[in-house]
Amino acid sequence: SHWLPLVRAKCNPSLDGEGDAEAEAEGDTQREPIRKPIVLVGNKIDLIEYSTMDSVLAIMEDYPEIESCVECSAKSLHNISEMFYYAQKAVLHPTSPLYMMEEQELTSACKKSLVRIFKICDIDGDNLLNDYELNLFQRRCFNTPLQPQILDEVKAVIQKNVPDGIYNDAVTLKGFLFLHCLFIQRGRNETTWAVLRRFGYNDQLEMCQEYLRPPLKIPPGSSTELSHRGQQFLIAVFERYDRDGDGALSPEEHKMLFSTCPAAPWSYSTDIRKSCPINETTGWVTLHGWLCRWTLMTLIDVVKTMEYLAYLGFNVHENDSQLAAIHVTRERRIDLAKRQSSRSVYKCHVIGPKGSGKTGMCRGFLVEDMHKLIGKEFKTNVVNCINSVQVYGQEKHLILRDIDVRHALDPLQPQEVNCDVACLVYDSSNPRSFEYVARIYIKYYAESKIPVMIVGTKCDMDERRQDYLMQPSEFCDKYKLLPPHLFSLKTNKKELYTKLATMAAFPRFQAAWILFYKHSHLRQFGLMTEDPKLWLKAGLGVAAATMLGFIVLKTISAAGAHTR
């Protein structure tokens, strides 16, 4: 009548009328009451010859936070060690977060957590835990295999109490939940808590922040990418939920895949289908597009990537933290010094005035046939498009970020300027379009070490003379840039994206940009003259220089031998 209400009120000030305004200000009026575990102890049992436990049962029903009751005697030491054992157990393995005494069933939070654990352990996705999956679950949680005899006994208990708890000699979700309910009813809370904590849950049955976000050190100028282990795990997750085996995730399969998470990390209809390659027949996300979207998230928000890897069970399946799924690249200053990037993911900022066609250029990166995009109005606000390209035979990922320019005089923020390669876009059919691009280059990139490509879109239309001090080609000559690349969706040519990736992979090393292209492109860079004997002359010159060097080397060697 006094202590139990007082403890409950002090744990929940709002229930006692205090702090209501504070709770309402925080929008927390629906908060669950906090219940500290309590052990009810009847002392001086040596003075009476009967038990008082029957009178306590009604109190336990009114106060579910009472974990246990024990009668003891300090004089005779009766149940003294048991009392401290129950107190310790109440803190380490409390019952109230897991089990409702009144209803004799698991709490909703405990059920939700165990359902997620069941789905993660269901490797083949058949909604059953077979012997292999149960053994793997046992090893991950308790570091010991499940003996065949014990496994058969467990199945027999489930079958006896829950008829549909076993199906085809495998444990169903109902059977899995019943098993944990049985553990708690028999006082083996530690078993269920060991499972929950192995899968990242704290005492409030919420995912621990340390579990979701392990500390990751990223030096300035470095970036984050998926490691090989991270990619292999995501491929396995994709294949597990691709139930029809068509190599693509339908909206239903995508929703089911993220059922172990609080919510999907992106929208299926307005994000991943607009920012990554998809199956153009069905509009569904392919394995390639799936990996591309994770690659994008890992670069721009690696913390979110680690969180969702934990939700999907990376820590359990790989028996390691999410840090094993992340690769931190070397610093950009080292790449610039070596004139070669060690990264496999590059960020390209696409900057240009409104109506220049930069959004269509970005979306063209994702489709096989760009003709489908002609005349299409892009309504979604997706700013990043990602796909893979081949650079010197190696697969690289290129992210095109469409920088939104509302007004020509708006300044660009540092995060809008800094990237691996900049693509400045103007409309070649609009005489006033190039001026904005020129001003952006002079203001932000003229003194920068970031490679820049200038692109003239809508080249299928009549090219207009630009109302600027210099024409685009003259501007590029003056600032030692590559000549403007002319682009149109109607031509359906994708060499622009390969050029951008190559420039990002080899910053400040134009020779690498040139050598990549065939002779038919060399004239574009001013390296192909009309002299048909140029290459013959160059070859003879190289041969003569080699021969002369060989003769000099032989002479020096002979002189050295004569001296000895």
Automatic annotation (TrEMBL):
<dbReference type="InterPro" id="IPR002048">
    <property type="entry name" value="EF_hand_dom"/>
</dbReference>
<keyword id="KW-0677">Repeat</keyword>
<feature type="domain" description="EF-hand">
    <location>
        <begin position="229"/>
        <end position="264"/>
    </location>
</feature>
<keyword id="KW-0496">Mitochondrion</keyword>
<dbReference type="InterPro" id="IPR052266">
    <property type="entry name" value="Miro-EF-hand_domain"/>
</dbReference>
<dbReference type="GO" id="GO:0005509">
    <property type="term" value="F:calcium ion binding"/>
</dbReference>
<protein>
    <recommendedName>
        <fullName>Mitochondrial Rho GTPase</fullName>
    </recommendedName>
</protein>
<keyword id="KW-0106">Calcium</keyword>
<keyword id="KW-1133">Transmembrane helix</keyword>
<keyword id="KW-0342">GTP-binding</keyword>
<dbReference type="Pfam" id="PF08355">
    <property type="entry name" value="EF_assoc_1"/>
</dbReference>
<dbReference type="GO" id="GO:0005525">
    <property type="term" value="F:GTP binding"/>
</dbReference>
<dbReference type="GO" id="GO:0007005">
    <property type="term" value="P:mitochondrion organization"/>
</dbReference>
<keyword id="KW-0472">Membrane</keyword>
<dbReference type="GO" id="GO:0003924">
    <property type="term" value="F:GTPase activity"/>
</dbReference>
<dbReference type="InterPro" id="IPR020860">
    <property type="entry name" value="MIRO_dom"/>
</dbReference>
<dbReference type="InterPro" id="IPR001806">
    <property type="entry name" value="Small_GTPase"/>
</dbReference>
<keyword id="KW-1000">Mitochondrion outer membrane</keyword>
<feature type="domain" description="Miro">
    <location>
        <begin position="343"/>
        <end position="506"/>
    </location>
</feature>
<dbReference type="GO" id="GO:0005741">
    <property type="term" value="C:mitochondrial outer membrane"/>
</dbReference>
<keyword id="KW-0547">Nucleotide-binding</keyword>
<dbReference type="InterPro" id="IPR018247">
    <property type="entry name" value="EF_Hand_1_Ca_BS"/>
</dbReference>
<keyword id="KW-0812">Transmembrane</keyword>
<feature type="transmembrane region" description="Helical">
    <location>
        <begin position="538"/>
        <end position="561"/>
    </location>
</feature>
<dbReference type="Pfam" id="PF08356">
    <property type="entry name" value="EF_assoc_2"/>
</dbReference>
<comment type="similarity">
    <text>Belongs to the mitochondrial Rho GTPase family.</text>
</comment>
<dbReference type="InterPro" id="IPR013566">
    <property type="entry name" value="EF_hand_assoc_1"/>
</dbReference>
<keyword id="KW-0378">Hydrolase</keyword>
<dbReference type="InterPro" id="IPR011992">
    <property type="entry name" value="EF-hand-dom_pair"/>
</dbReference>
<keyword id="KW-0479">Metal-binding</keyword>
<dbReference type="Pfam" id="PF00071">
    <property type="entry name" value="Ras"/>
</dbReference>
<dbReference type="InterPro" id="IPR013567">
    <property type="entry name" value="EF_hand_assoc_2"/>
</dbReference>
<dbReference type="InterPro" id="IPR027417">
    <property type="entry name" value="P-loop_NTPase"/>
</dbReference>
<dbReference type="InterPro" id="IPR021181">
    <property type="entry name" value="Miro"/>
</dbReference>
